[in-house]
Every structure is written in structure tokens, then in C-alpha cells.
């Protein structure tokens, strides 16, 4: 059985209203940590996006 690693990225809105998207992909542990960082920074509309290798989310 092959092991498949799942990666995650985020889209969110900064406190000033600017929409953002991750420029990197995270493993599960790192994604959980990044979500907490975004929440602490006051980001809203935080959406976790499952991504494939080489793929990143867009704000559009």
C-alpha cells in the first residue's frame, strides 16, 4: 500500500481586509500551527485547502 502525503494551504483575510493565499504547502502538524498563527494575528475567513504537490490556492 503506497503512503500518500497530504498537503494543505490557506486562504484568509488580513485584519486590514486584504485577501491572502499561502505561498507554501504544509503537512498536517504545520497546517494546524499555521492556522493558530493566523487566528492569533486577527485573520478572518480562514480556509484550509487540500493541495497536491506543486499546487497552491488562489485568492480569487
Task: Explain how this protein is built.
The protein has 60 residues and is an alpha+beta fold. It contains 1 helix and 3 strands. It has one helix at residues 28-40, and strands spanning 7-13, 19-21, 44-51. Strands 2-1-3 form a 3-stranded antiparallel beta sheet, with helices on one face. The mean pLDDT is 91.
Quick tags:
60 residues; 22% helix; 3-stranded antiparallel sheet; alpha+beta; flat
Topology:
Elements: E1 7-13, E2 19-21, H1 28-40, E3 44-51
Antiparallel strand pairs: 1-2, 1-3
Provide the β-strand percentage band. Answer: 25-35%
Structural class: alpha+beta
Instruction: Tell me the helix content.
Output: 10-25%
How widely separated are the two ends?
A: 36 Å
Rounded Rg: 12 Å
- Average pLDDT, rounded to a whole number, is 91
Counted beta strands: 3
Q: DSSP helix count?
A: 1
At a glance:
By secondary structure, the protein is α+β, with helices and mostly antiparallel strands. It is built from one helix and three strands; from the N terminus they run E-E-H-E. Strand 1 (7-13) and strand 2 form a beta hairpin.
Amino acid at each position: 500500500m503506497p503512503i500518500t502525503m497530504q498537503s494543505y494551504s490557506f486562504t484568509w483575510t488580513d485584519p486590514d481586509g486584504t485577501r491572502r493565499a499561502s505561498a507554501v504547502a504544509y503537512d498536517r502538524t504545520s497546517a494546524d500551527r499555521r492556522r493558530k498563527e493566523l487566528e492569533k494575528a486577527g485573520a478572518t475567513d480562514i480556509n484550509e485547502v487540500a493541495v497536491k504537490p506543486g499546487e497552491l490556492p488562489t485568492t480569487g
